[in-house]
Hints:
This protein is an alpha/beta fold. It has a single domain, classed as Transcription Regulator spoIIAA, CATH 3.30.750. 40% of the residues lie in helices and 23% in strands. The chain has 4 helices and 7 strands. It has helices at 28-40, 58-74, 85-93, 106-113, and strands at 7-11, 14-18, 22-23, 45-49, 55-56, 77-81, 101-103. The strands form 2 sheets. The chain has a 5-stranded mixed beta sheet with strand order 1-2-4-6-7. A two-stranded parallel ribbon has the order 3-5. A hairpin with a 2-residue loop joins strand 1 and strand 2 (14-18). It is globular, with a radius of gyration of 13 Å. It starts with 6 loop residues before the first strand and ends in a 5-residue tail after the last helix.
Amino acid sequence: MVDNRLTEHRIDRGAIVEMPREVDYYIRDQVWSQLSTLLDAGLRRLVVDMSGTVFCDSSGLVALMRVRQRAEESGCSLVLVTPHLTVCRAFEMAGADTLFERYSSVHEALTATSGAPH
């Protein structure tokens, strides 16, 4: 059995979660499940690190949009790190580019959200 767990790094009342190379139909349930569990734990800040992601299909986008809605409802600041053009284009083509705060590095994302409630 393949372990599809996403790598998490805890930060002050938050987490950085590393996405896999491909965020698609095969990983969407794991994305939703794991990120929802983190939100249930009362995180105030969640950085979804897609630095290593080179492909994101509509299933992956829908999972991330569901997480975004859940984060908003729970008062959690959610940002994405999307440095790769192919991933940025997927968000743009789906009209999801305006739904997320996106940064080109984890450092930028952490700096931008440092004023968020901790």
